[in-house]
Structures are given as structure tokens and as C-alpha cells.
Amino acid sequence: MTVGEIKRKMPEDLSRCVAFHGHICPGLIYGYRVAREARKLMNLRRSVDEEVVAVCENDSCAVDALQVLLGTVAGKGNLMIKDYGKNAFTVLSRKKRMAYRFSRKTGYNYKGKARSEFEKLDAAAAAGTASDAERKKLKRLKIDDLLSRPFHEIFTTRKVRYVEPRYAPLALSLPCAVCGEMTMATKMLKRGGGRQLCMPCAEKSRKAKLK
């Protein structure tokens, strides 16, 4: 099955994820599978405000699927990125006072001739020697694998202790004493004479003193 065929046959919710992200890829499918599993386990609806919170241990393509399906987005403050480079995600429901952590536990599952082909393509991609056609084929194989396997074969699901997450902070905006640009007061730094500076101006001031 080609990527184009996958797009034509994909469910409506996956189609929305692809439209938001810009393309279909293995990383997006990870987030898609996690978001659907979280919705099922906690009977979640898309978060209008901060009812649902996602803590992502990477900044990969997967995050976009969580934004689309769970409504956990950067602008509302209910999406937290802890970039450990781990394919792991914790989803919390304030209403249910529940939380689940999903972590990838396995690689791609190909056997026999198919595994040999997959490993050859994967090695070429890692070495930077794969052709465009080979990279597309590798992506297609990964997507097929992730969409066809049961969730429990790909991810470990663990119910974790619910800890009430902080709501997105609100604060006054004040003008920076140097550039004059309005800046969230709690993000400003005090410098000589009690002046409040935005972070970039404070950094420039620090570097100037070191010269």
C-alpha cells in the first residue's frame, strides 16, 4: 500500500491530524495511537480549556496528533514538553483525576524476508545513503506496521498517580526598561537600579559587562 493509498483510506480523525501536521509519517501515527488510547481509557473529549493535560517526553511529530485529538496545545498551557528524547507520553484528566503514561516498548515488527528488507532500508536511511524512493518505502512500511498492530504490542500502558497540574500562569505585562517591548512580568529579570529587563536584553547586558 502506498502512502497515497493510506491517505485515501485513513479514518477521519487521522485525516485531521495529517491536515494539521502537513504530512503523514510514523511519528504522527505514534501520537495518534496514544491519543486514541487515552480517550478510550478515560472517556475523554477534546479539551476546550485545560481539562486534559499532556506531558510529552519528546518534541516529535507525535505531539501534533495529541494537539488535534486531545486539545492539549501549547497556547493553552496544557501541553508540556520535557524533551528527553523518549517516546513516552502522560495524559491527565482533571475531571476524572486520572493519569496514564504510555511508553514505546518495541521497535518495528517484521519477520523473514520483510524484516531483511526493512533492516536494509533502515540502515541506508540511517547512513544517509537511501534514495528518495527507498526513504518513502521505509516510511510506508513503518506506517503500515504502526497502524496494523494492537496498541499493547507497541506501547506499555501504566496508570500513574494523579498529581494536579498547574494551570497556565497569568501575569501583567510590563515594558522592558531597555527595548520597551511589553513582557510578561514574571519572565522579567531585575538589573541595576531595580530596572526590569526582558530576557534577551538582560542577556545582552550580561555579555556587555563581560567584555
Structure description:
By secondary structure, this protein is α+β, with helices and mostly antiparallel strands. It folds into two domains: 157 residues, 60s Ribosomal Protein L30, Chain: A (2-Layer Sandwich), CATH 3.30.1330; 38 residues, no CATH class. It is 44% helix and 18% strand. The chain has eight helices and nine strands. It has a five-stranded mixed beta sheet with strand order 2-1-3-4-5. It is globular, with a radius of gyration of 22 Å. 26% of the residues are buried. The mean pLDDT is 91.
Report the CATH C-level class of the largest domain: Alpha Beta
* Beta-strand fraction estimate: 15-25%
Neighbour order of strands in the largest sheet? 2-1-3-4-5
Based on helices, strands and strand pairing, what is the structural class?
A: alpha+beta
**What radius of gyration results from the CA coordinates?**
22 Å
Return the CATH architecture of the largest domain: 2-Layer Sandwich
Profile the largest sheet.
Answer: 5 strands, mixed
Shape: globular
CATH topology of the largest domain: 60s Ribosomal Protein L30, Chain: A
Q: Quote the distance from N terminus to C terminus.
A: 61 Å
What's the number of helices? 8
Share of residues in helices:
40-55%
The ordered string of helix (H) and strand (E) elements is HHHEHEEEHHHEEEEEH
What ranges have pLDDT less than 50 throughout 5 or more consecutive residues?
Answer: none
Tally of distinct domains: 2
Chain-averaged pLDDT: 91
